[in-house]
Amino acid sequence: MKIVMLGAPGAGKGTQADMIAQKYDIPHISTGDIFRANLKNGTELGLKAKTYMDAGQLVPDELTCDLVVDRIAQDDCAKGYILDGFPRTIPQAEFFTAALAARNERVDYAIDVEVPDENIVNRMSGRRACPACGATYHMVYIPPKQEGVCDNCGAALIQRNDDKPETVLNRLKVYHDQTQPLIDYYTEMGVLKGVDGTKDMKEVFADIVKILED
Ligand code: ADP
Ligand code: ADP
Ligand code: ZN
Fold it and tell me: Which numbered ligand comes closest to the C-alpha of 179?
């Protein structure tokens, strides 16, 4: 099962991808997480990506595409995987389709998590992340049991640098300009499924499971 998650920044792609990955025992591959891990480890890729991420811009396709294709060639992806945050541009999607075709494969589902812009700023300003285990919370909608502390591992939660309001608006614009066209791209491929991302996280998940098991 090869799944691509689409949706605006803050729509809940990562939250849903985590639950799907657990239920179906397939890896959750987030390009944002990969860039952040590189940044934390001080790699050259991390340093290059940082400038773009801090500005709310996309990291160039040359730094992104090969990394994903290498990742899906690993053994743990044999049964499938869920991509969160990739592809994000038409050239990335075309590159990915071609890379899959070379392996006689294709995307099975592109799930678009639909959330209107006016909800996005709230979603992202309340997002808190665990720097140790990667878990994501929301101060109001999905709070940890103890304020500011990760339920899983006890680390102190942080706000992502690029979730500050001034950057959020940039990211939303980049989404509309560069990523939203992927909805048409995957519709034409016949694999697009939309879900209402404004519902409670468990309801959104149930809707996605219904699509995957239909
Ligand atoms: P969000 O959870 O808000 O959708 P991500 O964690 O997916 O954000 O991405 C954070 C940042 O990492 C993006 O704003 C962008 O700079 C970079 N990034 C992640 N995935 C890609 C990609 N496929 N192409 C280009 N840049 C990316
Ligand atoms: P994305 O990966 O699309 O950027 P996230 O999964 O990180 O989005 O979710 C963005 C923020 O919204 C997080 O703080 C998350 O806890 C919260 N969130 C996710 N799904 C929902 C939902 N269905 N209702 C309310 N808040 C949600
Ligand atoms: Zn944690």
Answer: 1
Could you tell me the distance, in angstroms and rounded to a whole number, from the CA of residue 176 to the centre of ligand 1? 14
With the most atoms of ligand 1 within 8 angstroms of its CB, the residue from 47, 58, 63 to mutate is 58
**pTM for the model:** 0.96
For ligand 2, atom 19: residue with the closest CA = 12
Q: Which residue type does 201 have? A: M
Domain membership flag for residue 143 = no
Dump pLDDT digits (tens) for 182-205: 999 999 999 999 999 999 999 999
Containing domain of residue 107, as a range? 2-116+179-213
Nearest CA-CA partner of 87 in 172, 150, 18, 178: 178
Which DSSP string corresponds to 15-51? HHHHHHHHHHT--EEEHHHHHHHHHHTT-HHHHHHHH
Which CATH number fits the domain that encloses residue 101? 3.40.50.300
- The reply to whether 128 belongs to the active site is no
**Which mutation among 6, 35, 160, 163 tests ligand 1's pocket best, with the greatest number of atoms within 8 A of CB?**
35
- What is the spatial distance between Cα 137 and Cα 150, in angstroms, rounded to a whole number? 8
Quote the distance between the C-alpha of residue 20 and its chain's center.
Answer: 12
